[in-house]
Specification:
Helix content: 25-40%
Distance between the termini: 32 Å
Radius of gyration: 18 Å
Number of helices: 9
Strand order of the largest sheet: 1-2-4-3-5-6-7-8
CATH superfamily: Alpha/Beta hydrolase fold, catalytic domain
Number of strands: 8
CATH class: Alpha Beta
Shape: globular
CATH architecture: 3-Layer(aba) Sandwich
Number of domains: 1
CATH topology: Rossmann fold
């Protein structure tokens, strides 16, 4: 267990490193139920996130009788990062992340789920990866909860998004894959916290809890994305938007959208999921992108919907 982060992790945390097939070290965590477990959850977090950011959320599941598993994706948190500059978010191939999830499940989780249900709970980029996993590995999860799915970036005007995607992919392909994309945060001093709060949550106290974790252990901090990351994200979004892709997923899904979403594109998510029979879509009003660390009132509504779906 990493002593630099222990004070910011949930109770009874068991954290270790899993060496992936290509030698990359992945930081994985197990957070046991308080009492006998009724089910297990794989928590798939979002872009630039890490285990410590979900301490309160994980604790809520532990108290409900769930074993919780989660991980820092390659390139994030305390897992190995591919570039010398650890502030750069660089993942040109999201398929590697999906394969990492499968290794984690196969090698560390699966035997724990033989006698009770196994649920996926995923946020933002984790929800995109989760959809790909549900497609590629049917029958593993009993149900899935997707919060604020990252099915597309929120560009504003539609034509801007199309042009931006062409620019991002071209830059990555002509030699700028490892360069910061324009306007990205290159170090902690560039973070404008009030802007981030306005995008992510109405609860400043919960927002600053993860900031304190990165101050305690600076390696948890991750800055903006490279052109390579953007190419990887666009390629991955194109995969889940293939004709008929979603209809092959049979796992029951609860999709929860933030009513005040400014980070990802809810319209894209609705278009992707609304005609899939096994998907229920609900909007959490008065919520920004990070529903799981919103105000007490919003979190109460969130868990009411999750409890009704899972329990």
């Amino acid at each position: 267990m990493n002593n630099n982060s222990i004070n910011f992790l949930p109770e009874f945390a068991e954290v270790e490193y899993l060496t992936a097939r290509d030698g990359v070290r992945l930081r994985v965590g197990f957070f046991p139920s308080f009492g006998d477990a009724k089910a297990s959850i794989l928590l798939l977090n979002g872009h630039r996130e890490f285990l410590e950011k979900y301490t309160e959320f994980i604790g809520s599941f532990q108290r409900r009788g769930f074993n919780v598993y989660s991980m820092d994706y390659r390139g994030q948190g305390l897992s190995d990062k591919p570039l010398d500059n650890h502030n750069k978010s660089h993942n040109p191939d999201f398929s590697l992340l999906v394969e990492d999830i499968n290794e984690f499940i196969s090698r560390k989780i699966k035997s724990d789920t033989f006698n009770h249900p196994f649920y996926m709970v995923a946020h933002s980029m984790g929800a995109q990866l989760g959809l790909r996993y549900l497609h590629d590995h049917p029958g593993i999860f009993t149900k899935a909860v997707l919060m604020s799915p990252f099915t597309d970036l929120n560009y504003g005007l539609k034509y801007v998004g199309g042009l931006a995607k062409i620019f991002f992919k071209t830059a990555a392909l002509i030699g700028f894959s490892e360069a910061f994309a324009p306007g990205q945060v290159k170090n902690k001093d560039m973070v404008v916290h009030q802007y981030a709060i306005d995008q992510l949550t109405h609860d400043e106290q919960r927002y600053y809890s993860s900031v304190r974790a990165t101050e305690h252990n600076p390696e948890l901090f991750l800055g903006g994305v490279t052109f390579g990351w953007l190419k990887g994200a666009i390629d991955s979004m194109n995969i889940i938007k293939q004709s008929g892709y979603m209809k092959t997923i049979k796992t029951p899904i609860l999709c929860l959208l933030a009513g005040e979403e400014n980070v990802v594109d809810n319209v894209s998510t609705l278009k992707l999921l609304q005609h899939v029979k096994n998907v229920s879509i609900e909007i959490i009003e008065n919520s920004r992108h990070e529903i799981y660390r919103e105000t007490d009132q919003v979190i109460s509504i969130l868990f009411g919907k999750i409890d009704n779906f899972l329990l």
